[in-house]
C-alpha cells in the first residue's frame, strides 16, 4: 500500500434482515481486513449459538445490548483499505426509530449503499433511506440488490427492482445511482465477480467503491474559511505573529488573494498560508491551515474569511430542513442554542412550515408536530447573523445543529435551504 | 482541477485531527492530553504541535502511571516534554495503592489496568480538567467503534453508550454541566496502519520498544509477556526465554503482549502491519478478560 490512496466515506442503510451486516462482514473478509483473532472470536460465537458455518454478520456486533438483542443501536464506524483507497464505513441501523443515526452517518458520506432484499423488492424503508441520502446530499448512491441467490439469480427480479427504484428516485435530488445484483452471503459481486449472473455486465461493489469519482465532492468554487481560533505565540521569535487557524470549507485560497472578513466587512490580502511544514501557495478543502493577513484587523472565532465578490448569505432568518433527534419534541416558539461552522448563537423556532412524511414525501401542513425522527421545514430566527450557504452548495456552511440549553443534548440537525 | 485538489488519505486524516484539536482548544477551558508513551499518544502530541504551531500546545500532558513501565517509555516521555516545552502531570497508581484509594489485584494475571480508572478520574478532578484527549481509535476494539470524537462523561466520569450525542458534519457539541467532562478522540478515524504510515512519513522519533530487540519473555494464553522487573510471577510450568520481539502497543508491562519480530525500521513495521493476521490488541490481556471487557471499562470511565 502506498501513501497516495484517497479516503472514501460511505454509509450503509438497510432494513432489518436484508443482510447489511453480512454484506459489511463480506467486504471486510474478502478484502482481507479481518484478523485471525477476530475471525476466531466470531467462529466461536457462531458455534456457541449453534449456527451453521461462520456468521460474518457477527463482525459488526458492538455493544452488549446489541449482541443480546441481535440489533444495531448506534452508528458504528469500520475501516478497510485496498491499494487504491482507504474506506470509512458508517454502519447505521435501519429501523425507523434510528433515522437520526442514518442522518448522522450520511452527513459526511461520499457514497450511500442502500440494501434491497431481492425477494422483497423496494419497500417503505428503501424509499426512506434513498430520501435521506438525497436530503443529506450524498453525491453517489449504490443500490445493492442482495440475496440474489434466493431468487435463483434471476435477471428479471433485478430489472424489476431497478425500474421500481428509478420510478421514485427521479423525484429525488440524486445525480449518480448504480445498481448491483449480489449475494453477500455467498460473496457474489461483492469483491469477487459472480459466476452465477453472466447477464450482469456492471462492476462488483468493491470495484465501484474503488472507482467512483469523488474529486468534485467538495466545493472548490466559493471561498469560505470559518476561523476556529487565533494563534498568538507570545514568544520573542514570533512577536507579531497573528494567525487565523481553521479548515477550508470551500474554494481555493491563494497567497495574495484579496479577502473580506465577515461579519465586519473589512478587507485585506492573504499575506501567508502557514502550516507547521512551511508556507503554502494555496489551500483548499478539507485542509487545516493558518491564514495571516496583511492588515491588522480584529478577527475572532466564528468570523469567516471569504472573497470580496463571492459572499455567503448573512442574516438572522434561516429556512432549514430539520431532522429531530430528541425524545422531547420540537417546541413551537422554543429557544435553542444553534451551532453553525465555528459560530454559536441562540435561536427561536418562528414557524414550522410543514412536516414531511418521509415515506410518501407528502408535506403535511395540518399536523405539524415534529417528534423524534421526524423531518420538517422550519423557519428560525437567530440572535446573531449567521454566514450561511444553501446546503446544496456547501455541506459545511449549509449545516447547523440545535442544542437544548437545559440538557445540552444535540436535539436536531438542519440543512439550510 | 479536481485531481490537483485531492488530499491523500493520510493528509485528510491529519487535517481532520488538527480540526478536532483546535475545536478542543476553542471550546474548553482546561484540556489535558492523556499521554501514555504509546504510539497513539505520540501521534496525538505530534498533531497538536502542528495544529498550534508556532505557539506551544495549549494542553497539559497527563500520564496515568501504573508504576509498571518500560524504562524506555519513561525516558522517551521526559525527552518529549522537554522538547515541546509542555507541562507534565503524573497520576500515580502506586500512590493510590499506598494511600488505600484503590486495592491491588492478586494472583497470576493480576494487573493494575483496572486501577487506572480511579486514578485517572481523580487526576482529572484534581487538575480541574474539563476535557481529556485520548488516543483511542475506532478500529481498535468493538466498543470503540461506536465512540464519538467528543464523548460526553457525566459527573461520575461514566460513558453512556446508548445515549450518545449525534455527531454530524464537523459540528462538535462540547456543552456540559458543571462537574461533567468530555473525552475527546482526535484520531478516531485512523487505523493502526495509518498511524505507522504517517509516523514514517513525518519522521517522528519513537521509543525503541517498537522496534525488534532481544527480551526475556514467557508464553501465556497465546501471548508473549515481558518478564522485565519481575512484575509477572512465573509459574513452575512456564519457561522464560530470550526472543527477538517488539511491542505493537505500549502500556503497562503486565498487560502489554510483545510479538516475535525482526522489524527494525518503520518500513519493516509497515510491511509487518500490512501482513499482520492478528489485531494489535490481540496482545492485550486486559481486553481478553471477557467479551465486553472494553465496553465495561469504558462505561466506568476508562480511557
Question: How would the blueprint of this fold be written?
Answer:
The complex is a heterodimer of chains A (417) and B (303).
Chain A: E1 6-13, H1 20-30, H2 36-48, H3 64-69, E2 76-81, E3 85-91, H4 99-106, E4 111-117, H5 124-135, E5 140-146, H6 155-169, E6 176-181, H7 205-211, E7 224-231, E8 243-247, E9 253-254, E10 258-262, E11 266-274, E12 282-283, E13 288-293, E14 304-307, E15 313-324, E16 335-340, E17 343-356, E18 363-364, E19 375-388, E20 399-403, E21 410-416
Parallel strand pairs in A: 1-3, 1-4, 4-5, 5-6
Antiparallel strand pairs in A: 2-3, 7-8, 7-14, 8-13, 9-12, 10-11, 10-14, 11-13, 15-19, 15-21, 16-17, 16-20, 17-18, 17-19, 20-21
Chain B: H1 9-27, E1 31-34, H2 39-52, E2 60-65, H3 71-84, E3 88-92, H4 93-98, H5 115-126, E4 131-133, E5 150-153, E6 181-184, H6 192-201, E7 213-220, E8 223-226, E9 240-247, E10 257-260, H7 266-275, H8 293-300
Parallel strand pairs in B: 1-2, 1-4, 2-3, 4-6
Antiparallel strand pairs in B: 5-6, 7-8, 7-9, 8-10, 9-10
Helix pairs in contact in B: 1-2, 6-7
The level of helicity of chain B is: 25-40%
Q: Tell me, rounded to a whole number, the average pLDDT of chain A.
A: 91
- The chain-level mean pLDDT of chain B equals 86
Question: Which consecutive residue ranges of chain B, at least 5 long each, have pLDDT under 50?
Answer: none
CATH architecture grouping of the largest domain in chain B: 3-Layer(aba) Sandwich
Provide key terms for this protein.
heterodimer, A: 417 residues, alpha+beta, Rossmann fold, Elongation Factor Tu (Ef-tu), domain 3, 3 domains, 6-stranded antiparallel beta barrel, 17% helix, B: alpha/beta, 2 domains, 4-stranded antiparallel barrel, 8 helices, globular, nucleotide-binding (chain B), transferase (chain B), Sulfate adenylyltransferase subunit 2 (chain B), Sulfate_adenylyltrnsfr_sub2 (chain B)
Structure description:
Chain B: One of its GO terms (molecular function) is sulfate adenylyltransferase (ATP) activity. The complex is a heterodimer of chains A (417) and B (303). Chain A contains seven helices and 21 strands. Chain A has helices at 20-30, 36-48, 64-69, 99-106, 124-135, 155-169, 205-211, and strands spanning 6-13, 76-81, 85-91, 111-117, 140-146, 176-181, 224-231, 243-247, 253-254, 258-262, 266-274, 282-283, 288-293, 304-307, 313-324, 335-340, 343-356, 363-364, 375-388, 399-403, 410-416. In chain A, strand 2 (76-81) and strand 3 form a beta hairpin. The two termini of chain A are 42 Å apart. Chain B has helices spanning 9-27, 39-52, 71-84, 93-98, 115-126, 192-201, 266-275, 293-300, and strands at 31-34, 60-65, 88-92, 131-133, 150-153, 181-184, 213-220, 223-226, 240-247, 257-260. The longest helix of chain B has 19 residues, at 9-27. Chain B is globular and about 55 Å long. The chains are: A alpha+beta (417), B alpha/beta (303). At the A-B interface, helix 2, helix 3, strand 2, strand 3 and helix 4 of A face helix 1, helix 2 and helix 6 of B.
Amino acid at each position: 500500500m502506498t501513501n497516495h490512496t484517497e479516503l472514501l466515506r460511505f454509509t450503509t442503510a438497510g432494513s432489518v434482515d436484508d443482510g447489511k451486516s453480512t454484506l459489511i462482514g463480506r467486504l471486510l473478509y474478502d478484502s482481507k481486513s479481518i484478523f485471525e483473532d477476530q475471525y476466531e472470536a466470531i467462529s466461536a460465537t457462531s458455534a456457541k449459538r449453534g449456527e451453521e458455518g461462520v456468521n460474518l454478520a457477527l463482525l459488526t456486533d458492538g455493544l452488549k445490548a446489541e449482541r443480546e438483542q441481535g440489533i444495531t443501536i448506534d452508528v458504528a464506524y469500520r475501516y478497510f483499505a485496498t491499494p487504491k483507497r482507504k474506506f470509512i464505513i458508517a454502519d447505521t441501523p435501519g429501523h425507523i426509530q434510528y433515522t437520526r443515526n442514518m442522518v448522522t452517518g450520511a452527513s459526511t458520506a461520499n457514497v450511500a449503499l442502500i440494501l434491497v432484499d431481492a425477494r422483497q423488492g423496494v419497500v417503505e424503508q428503501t424509499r426512506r433511506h434513498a430520501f435521506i441520502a438525497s436530503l443529506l446530499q450524498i453525491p453517489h448512491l449504490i443500490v445493492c440488490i442482495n440475496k440474489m441467490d434466493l431468487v435463483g439469480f434471476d435477471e428479471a427480479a433485478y430489472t424489476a427492482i431497478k425500474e421500481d427504484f428509478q420510478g421514485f428516485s427521479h423525484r429525488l435530488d440524486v445525480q449518480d445511482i448504480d445498481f448491483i445484483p449480489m449475494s453477500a452471503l455467498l460473496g457474489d459481486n461483492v469483491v469477487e465477480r459472480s459466476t452465477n449472473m453472466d447477464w450482469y455486465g456492471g462492476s462488483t461493489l468493491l470495484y465501484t467503491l474503488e472507482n467512483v469519482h469523488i474529486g468534485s465532492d467538495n466545493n472548490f468554487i466559493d471561498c469560505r474559511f470559518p476561523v476556529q481560533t487565533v494563534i498568538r505565540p507570545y514568544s520573542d521569535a514570533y512577536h507579531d505573529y497573528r494567525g487565523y487557524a481553521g479548515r477550508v470549507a470551500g474554494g481555493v485560497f491563494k497567497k495574495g488573494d484579496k479577502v473580506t472578513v465577515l461579519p465586519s466587512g473589512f478587507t485585506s490580502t492573504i499575506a501567508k498560508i502557514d502550516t507547521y511544514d512551511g508556507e503554502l501557495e494555496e489551500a483548499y478543502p478539507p485542509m487545516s491551515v493558518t491564514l495571516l493577513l496583511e492588515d491588522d484587523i480584529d478577527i475572532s472565532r466564528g468570523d469567516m474569511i471569504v472573497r470580496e465578490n463571492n459572499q455567503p448569505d448573512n442574516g438572522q432568518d434561516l429556512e432549514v430542513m430539520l431532522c429531530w433527534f430528541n425524545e422531547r419534541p420540537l417546541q413551537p416558539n422554543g429557544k435553542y442554542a444553534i451551532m453553525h461552522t465555528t459560530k454559536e448563537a441562540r435561536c427561536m423556532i418562528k414557524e414550522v412550515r410543514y412536516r414531511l412524511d418521509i415515506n410518501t414525501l407528502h408535506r403535511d401542513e395540518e399536523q405539524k408536530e415534529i417528534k423524534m425522527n421526524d423531518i420538517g421545514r422550519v423557519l428560525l430566527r437567530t440572535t446573531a447573523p449567521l454566514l450561511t450557504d444553501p446546503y446544496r452548495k456547501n455541506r459545511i456552511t449549509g449545516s447547523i445543529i440545535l442544542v437544548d440549553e437545559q440538557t445540552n443534548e444535540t436535539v436536531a440537525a438542519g440543512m439550510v435551504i | 482541477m479536481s485531481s490537483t485538489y485531492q488530499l491523500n488519505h493520510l493528509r485528510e486524516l491529519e487535517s481532520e485531527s488538527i480540526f478536532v484539536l483546535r475545536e478542543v482548544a476553542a471550546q474548553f477551558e482546561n484540556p489535558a492530553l492523556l499521554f501514555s508513551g504509546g504510539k497513539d499518544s505520540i501521534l496525538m502530541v505530534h498533531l497538536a504541535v502542528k495544529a498550534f504551531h508556532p505557539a506551544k500546545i495549549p494542553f497539559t500532558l497527563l500520564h496515568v502511571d501504573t508504576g509498571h513501565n518500560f524504562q524506555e517509555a519513561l525516558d522517551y516521555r521526559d525527552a518529549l516534554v522537554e522538547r515541546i516545552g509542555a507541562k507534565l502531570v503524573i497520576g500515580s497508581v502506586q500512590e493510590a495503592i499506598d494511600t488505600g484509594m484503590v486495592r491491588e489485584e492478586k494472583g497470576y494475571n493480576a494487573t493494575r489496568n483496572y486501577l487506572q480508572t480511579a486514578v485517572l478520574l481523580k487526576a482529572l478532578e484534581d487538575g480541574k480538567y474539563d476535557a481529556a484527549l485520548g488516543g483511542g481509535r475506532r478500529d481498535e476494539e468493538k466498543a470503540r467503534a461506536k465512540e464519538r470524537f467528543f464523548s460526553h462523561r457525566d459527573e461520575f466520569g461514566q460513558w453512556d453508550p446508548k445515549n450518545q450525542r449525534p455527531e454530524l458534519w464537523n459540528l462538535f457539541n462540547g456543552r456540559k454541566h458543571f462537574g461533567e467532562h468530555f473525552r475527546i478522540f482526535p484520531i478516531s478515524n485512523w487505523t493502526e496502519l495509518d498511524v505507522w504510515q504517517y509516523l514514517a512519513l513525518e519522521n517522528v522519533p519513537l521509543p525503541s520498544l517498537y522496534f525488534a530487540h532481544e527480551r526475556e519473555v514467557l508464553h501465556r494464553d497465546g501471548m508473549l509477556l515481558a518478564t522485565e522487573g519481575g512484575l509477572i510471577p512465573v509459574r513452575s510450568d512456564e519457561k522464560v526465554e530470550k526472543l527477538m520481539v517488539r511491542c505493537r502497543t505500549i502500556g503497562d508491562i503486565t498487560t502489554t503482549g510483545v510479538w516475535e519480530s525482526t522489524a527494525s525500521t518503520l518500513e519493516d513495521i509497515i510491511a509487518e502491519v500490512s501482513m499482520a493476521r492478528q489485531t494489535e490488541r490481540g496482545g492485550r490481556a486486559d481486553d481478553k478478560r471477557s467479551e465486553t471487557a472494553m465496553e465495561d471499562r469504558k462505561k466506568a470511565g476508562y480511557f
